[in-house]
Amino acid sequence: MMVRRRFIGSTALLGIAGIFGFAKRPIEKPLLHHVFFWLKNPESEADKQKLIAGLKTLAAIPTIRHIHVGVLASTEKREVVDTSWDVSELMFFDDEAGQKVYQDHPLHLAFVKNCSHLWTKVLVYDSIDV
Amino acid sequence: MMVRRRFIGSTALLGIAGIFGFAKRPIEKPLLHHVFFWLKNPESEADKQKLIAGLKTLAAIPTIRHIHVGVLASTEKREVVDTSWDVSELMFFDDEAGQKVYQDHPLHLAFVKNCSHLWTKVLVYDSIDV
Hints:
Two copies of one chain form a homodimer. The first copy, chain A, has four helices and four strands, in the order αβαββααβ. In chain A, strands 2-3-1-4 form a four-stranded antiparallel beta sheet. The longest helix of chain A has 19 residues, at 2-20. Chain A has a single domain (26-128), classed as 2-Layer Sandwich (Alpha-Beta Plaits). By secondary structure, chain A is of the alpha+beta class. Chain A has helices at residues 2-20, 45-57, 96-104, 106-115; strands at residues 31-39, 66-72, 87-93, 119-129. At the A-B interface, α1, β1, β2, α3 and β4 of A face α1, β1, β2, α3 and β4 of B. β4 of chain A pairs antiparallel with β2 of chain B, so a sheet runs across the interface.
């Protein structure tokens, strides 16, 4: 009975973890790779959607632990807030090796090949948790 | 028996969720508030640690769903990577209202009062998931 109960507990737990997207182990000191893109045609909604779709294909790269593709939030416009960019991606990696695997991955190279004509500027911030 | 087993299952689940920091519900379209700081004395390890400690006090603000305090990662130096900053903070909020609560929160105001002498420049990126 004890064994069965534990089994049920674990199954429920994995199920819930899966639903929440937290099935993988948490990252101790993640590497955050945050990239901002300035579109060549910022008025073109089609170009923006193409870039967003391209960025979302990167999610299949196995060393990416979490990915967020974003656009400008409507927060208060203050002097310190850069609101000049168009699309962003934030990725979490376990470490620098994981980020290197991503840089060299065929899906990333295909994304650059297919989408780099859409942007005029890219800015990257790589940080590691302390 | 059935009731007791369910109760044990749920307790284990909440316990594990708590350990992993995933006790709260997942955010549908989070607002990401990423801030980069340039220190007045970038050579001063003491100043850097003071800023890091100050940023970590912000974690107690209830509308912050996740917080990451970071420093420069040792990723490959490429033209597109900005490596000129010293300390960063990334916060996840449910929405813009949550971010506004943080901006006006006494812990945030105390942080600015106690730590703003440490930096010369701050740059903020506010994005929302798409």
